[in-house]
Amino acid sequence: MVKHIVLWKFRPGTEAEQKQFLDGLRGLYGVIPQIKEQEVGVNAGAGNYDAALVSVFDSMEDLAAYQSDHRHVAVASICKAIREDRVAVDYEF
Question: Closest by alpha carbon to 62, among 24, 21, 32, 25?
């Protein structure tokens, strides 16, 4: 099993695009079959990063398939225009 964790810091004034992006990520669960579990959340505190994605996949190959899936690529393209920073970690458990 692989856990895929991503954090984003968004540019100010992009709230509508942030919602579109995060709703788009949520919409991938149950559509892209490699995603076994998924959580998308917005930071409830102040500072640090603005949103997080935590996903579970059966293997690194399934994660790679998800990342190259055209539906994920379309959603990810929204984020590239609105993010200030992105960090990610993938680990096997």
Answer: 32
Query: How is residue 68 written in tokens?
Result: 């190259």
> Is the pLDDT higher at 17 or at 46?
17
DSSP codes, 15-28: HHHHHHHHHHHHHH
Q: How confident is the model at residue 23 (pLDDT cuts 50, 70, 90)?
A: very high
How much is the pTM?
0.94
Domain that holds residue 37: 2-92
The Cα 31–Cα 26 span in angstroms is 10
**Residue 67, CB half-sphere, CA atoms under 13 Å: how many?**
14
For position 11, which CATH number holds? Answer: 3.30.70.100
When divided into structural domains, the chain yields a total of 1
pLDDT at residue number 47:
81
